[in-house]
Amino acid sequence: MLKRIEVFFFLYVVVHLGFLFGFVHGVAMGDSEGVKKPLTDKDVWSSISEKAESSRPLEVRFNEPAKHWTDSFPIGNGRLGAMVWGGVATETLNLNEDTLWTGTPGYYTDPGVPPILSEVRKLVDDGQYAAATTAALNLSGDASNVYQFLGDMKLEFDDSNATYDKGTYKRVLDLDTATVKVEYSANGVEYLREYFALNPDQVIAMKISGNKLANLNFTVYLDSKLHHHSYVNDKNQIIMDGSCQGRRIPPKVYGNDSPILRGPPKSNESSNPQGIQYSAVLDLQISDGAGGVRVLDGRKLRVEGCNSAIILLVASSSFDGPFTKPVDSKKDPKSSSISKMDSVKRFSYGDLYARHIDDYQALFHRVSLQLSKSSKNVTVNPLRENTDETISTAQRVKSFKINEDPSLVELLFQYGRYLLISCSRPGTQVANLQGIWNKDIEPAWDGAQHLNINLQMNYWPSLPCNLNECQEPLFDYISSLSINGKKTAEVNYNASGWVAHQVSDLWAKTSPDRGQAVWALWQMGGAWLCTHLWEHYTYTMDKDFLRNKAYPLMESCASFLLDWLIEGRGGFLETNPSTSPEHTFIAPDGKPASVSYSSTMDMAIINEVFSSIVSAAEVLGKKEDALIARVRKAQPRLYPTKIARDGSIMECKTLRILRCIIGMYRTYLAYSQGTRLLLKKLLIYVKQQTIPYIKEEKMVQGGRLCGKLLFGHVFVIAIMRIR
User: Fold this and answer.
1) 497: left (phi over 0), alpha (psi -120 to 50) or beta
2) In the chain, N or C terminus with fewer CB closer than 10 Å?
């Protein structure tokens, strides 16, 4: 999926800038093989005064309404999310609730796998990689389920807003307050809208006002692409009840990445099981002394002649954990939503905003970043004097290719932190492929958790960016994966411990996905996630977390890896079959293939997990345990990384996706064996591959940022840091 030239602007920041700062931090930690001493804020970040910070407002700004979904602004409280378009005549908020998915808990096992696995291994041993790739199709399982779209909040304003003064329009996302504001003038009235998503009270709030009395007229309603029914009660509230499909939507077809489907699903679930139920409640309040509200069509609210209006939205679902079928859930989403709204309405709008600011800034204000205003061979942006007040973010991005603006990099960095805070909080679901934001019933790649890099990337910024609480949903998710993964390991692979493959979902799917081996068959997803557990300990030094949460998961994962490894060529321990996710190669017989043995990706992750479990055992006094003895004996026998003459890793000769160079950052392989020279060569190679992208002509297309261009800048900065 990452072969697309462009990536969504907001996802880019979470993924790529999170990677950059996580990587730089990892290299700065040094070459110690033991526990890495956490760096203080003073060691890592340059402090800046309040005056300096206030002179550089952390605002994403546009001077027109959004034309595309990727132009709109995301807000979220970890569980509820919205994309704010900022339209004038009509306004749309695309709404999300993080537990709305298709499907029900799955089985994630296939007793028919072992004989097929033996066949594939023999083909690999015989060097018949293309044939092994074809045979490996029979190792795939059912497709993952699909993240769903709650619905839209629609506002339709009267004709007076149709002809507004475009020169007065501005749409701003203030990262310091996690608030969106839309301002414009129409027919002599200055209008202001404010939007925020409050975590403590789990509500999305919106206020609409004008500077003249009795000039606010609009209609508001809820709609959804899901099965639903909406109506207005006697409290000026719109109730929308609905349900997700109990069976996943047939997989989409994506050109050359199209999954190969083979017959009906392997699970024995009924053809039309009950899916997750949901309920949303919209509450409308208008200012005292002017205007009124009436009901239209039994499902819409019409506001006429008021001074200001406040809209609150809450939502709940019947999801009761990944192991409970929706039909067995005891949760009543309507009662839950109504109860939440009653609780929220105890507070005034001002009180809700104050609670939002206190909660959000307690996280966001932990880190500040100030980069130098100019550097060698860099021209200061001539627009800089006006950037903070009048220049749109789109214009700043366009000018960046010729005039580097350090404050734009600061903004991107903080935008990544904002997004992680907004989509992942204690008690929520893990951030999926799109965080929590989605406008489709059939989102790209199902909006699912992809364990071959995307889920990890979401959380790489959490520790170096001082947001360790935002990782808690990830650890809860790993725990769920380990439960299903034990069944998959035992039945599919006759192995102990637990395993998870490349794609998962709300139900903690651990079996291979359905389709081609190049992306569906990869046994290292759970192992890579386990590296986050040890990394969390090295930052927090929380021994209780290590003992009670992390170590049992790491221990069981290491147990699977030991059973999965087999003795191969030269007495090395290898993985077979092995893929490098989304990579293919030309086999010696000239045929394309993706299945081989001991990919660099596999071996680097196994090496990292083994190093982590050994270090954790030393901390907890378990270094004499039998499992640790097996790990110590196996680690020196792991198949080694092969380096080409040009300094590149053999697996990475065609550098489409950079997963396979995991060993050069954030892993034991990069900084525990003194391979700094190798690291530098690899970075130079990456720089050679990415520098051409910096000259990309068209940087902003339909509100999206050219991923290639900033991907190149990421590695240029990383190389400078190493030097």
Assistant:
1) left
2) C
404-459 pLDDT, tens digit each: 888 899 999 999 999 999 999 999 999 999 999 999 999 999 999 999 999 999 99
CA distance 26 to 18: 12
pLDDT at 701 over 60: no
> CA-to-CA distance for 198 and 63, rounded, in angstroms?
26
Last residue of a domain, one of 364, 387, 411: 364
Q: What are phi and psi of 92, to 5 degrees?
A: -130, 135
Closest CA to 472 of 436, 537, 424: 424
Residue ending a domain, among 331, 364, 397, is 364
The answer to whether residues 234 and 293 touch, using CB atoms and an 8 Å cutoff, is: no
Q: Are residues 118 and 215 in the same domain?
A: no
The mean pLDDT of the chain is 82
Residues 212 and 356 in one domain: yes
Torsion sign across C-alpha atoms 55, 56, 60, 65 = positive
> Greater confidence, 569 or 339?
339
- DSSP secondary structure code for residue 645 in this structure: T
Identify the CATH number of the domain in which residue 219 sits: 2.70.98.50
Q: Is the pLDDT of residue 576 over 90?
A: yes
334 in the same domain as 300:
yes
Let me know if residue 74 belongs to a domain: yes
In a domain, 433, yes or no: no
- The number of beta carbons lying within 10 Å of the beta carbon of residue 85 is 21
Which two three-digit tokens encode residue 158?
Answer: 């009267």
Handedness of CA 28, 32, 33, 38 (dihedral sign): negative
Q: Which two tokens stand for residue 520?
A: 């569906």
Give the torsion sign (CA, 9, 13, 14, 15): positive
**Phi/psi at 574 (5° precision):** -130, 165
Q: Rounded CA gap, 276 and 145, in Å?
A: 12
Q: Which two tokens stand for residue 274?
A: 């009950």
Q: Residue type at 489?
A: A
Instruction: Dig out the tokens for 293 from the structure.
Output: 């509200």
CB 261 within 8 A of CB 229: no
- 289 falls in which pLDDT band (50, 70, 90)? confident
Whether 138 is in a domain gets the answer yes
pLDDT for 49-83, tens place per residue? 344 444 568 999 999 999 999 999 999 999 999 99
Report the range of poorest mean pLDDT among 51-65, 498-512, 527-541: 51-65
Q: Which structural domain, as residue segments, surrounds residue 323?
A: 58-101+147-364
Q: How many CB atoms lie within 10 A of CB 104?
A: 22
